């Protein structure tokens, strides 16, 4: 069996008549048929081929195949954005009256889908505490179709034991769906740990250079067939151009991640010893409340570090203004280091109480550690602190 690091490089679309070494970009909205019979048989799905790029394109297929190989999934379906992947999955699998069990430590837009969009179709949810495994089990009802989690979560870096929760899900015959965006399949493979589905925002580490948006759903043939039928007609397709970029980005994901993770661990350790810092959260720091679970299910701790400034809300703003190297931007997983202050930006519409509920404190800073030299990253942080 080839290792995922090799598959990320060597899985490629079939060579064209030009014998190119690097896969070309297939910017075409449709494909021609040999004759009327070829056309009839492809539309009848008796023969496989390419008809229309809303659901079939060589660049997108290459990206799907690579991602499925990396996750150890049977197959995958790419979408225009990470949120399109989440919504497409819900749309494909759920019907009116169905129920989801989740926890509040999910991405902000996923929370909006669960609380504001899905209820329009009488699809309900129950939130439990992310580390309450009995709570997950107790929240499952006869209408529950799936348990939806994110680990490590954005931005709180909460860690959920995938194997343990998958046992709960199997016992109750519901699907376990994991948003694996922060870890990528090279640091954590939820399907191998018992999950049924993983979802990614490819916008983050998979692109890795802040250029494109993308998403992907990875699962069994049976589930991806449902996703495919929904997506084919509702149209959340990944563009061939973005698939071409993302597929090439996967070739360097392994080496990029190693640097992201090594830099992040070093920065987390140094922050932990700084007098202006109340506490640091990083999955591979022994002080993380779920360090043992992170160690068990992740290869390295990832590139995101969060920490709490002793100086609170005002201190957080001042800290951001003092940074010179770090970018102040909404993305993460980029080669360039990024800092955000959730309390004054992404979560500023919440009351202080609501923020505490979702694990966001006034002095919390989220760092996406990039690939710059670790000493330059530290110099910037230390200066701002
Ligand atoms: C960014 C993100 C998403 C959404 O992805 P987009 O590509 O921005 O639509 C979903 N989940 C997590 C954990 C994310 O960080």
Task: Give a quick summary of the entry.
The chain is an alpha/beta fold. It contains 15 helices and eleven strands.
N-to-C series of helices and strands: HHHEHEHEHEHEHEEHHHEHEHEHEH
**Globular, elongated, flat, extended or rod-shaped: what is the shape?**
globular
CATH class of the largest domain: Alpha Beta
Ligands present: pyridoxal-5'-phosphate
Tell me how many strands there are. 11
Q: Helix count, per DSSP?
A: 15
The gyration radius over C-alpha positions equals 21 Å
Strand order of the largest sheet: 1-7-6-5-4-2-3
Work out the count of structural domains.
2
Based on secondary structure, the structural category is alpha/beta
CATH topology of the largest domain: Aspartate Aminotransferase, domain 2
What can be said about the biggest beta sheet? 7 strands, mixed
Q: From the coordinates shown, what is the CATH architecture of the largest domain?
A: 3-Layer(aba) Sandwich
Give the percentage of residues in beta strands: 5-15%
Question: Alpha-carbon distance between the termini?
Answer: 48 Å
Mean pLDDT: 96
The percent range for helix content is: 25-40%
CATH homologous superfamily of the largest domain, by name? Type I PLP-dependent aspartate aminotransferase-like (Major domain)
Runs in which pLDDT lies below 50 for 5 or more consecutive residues are none
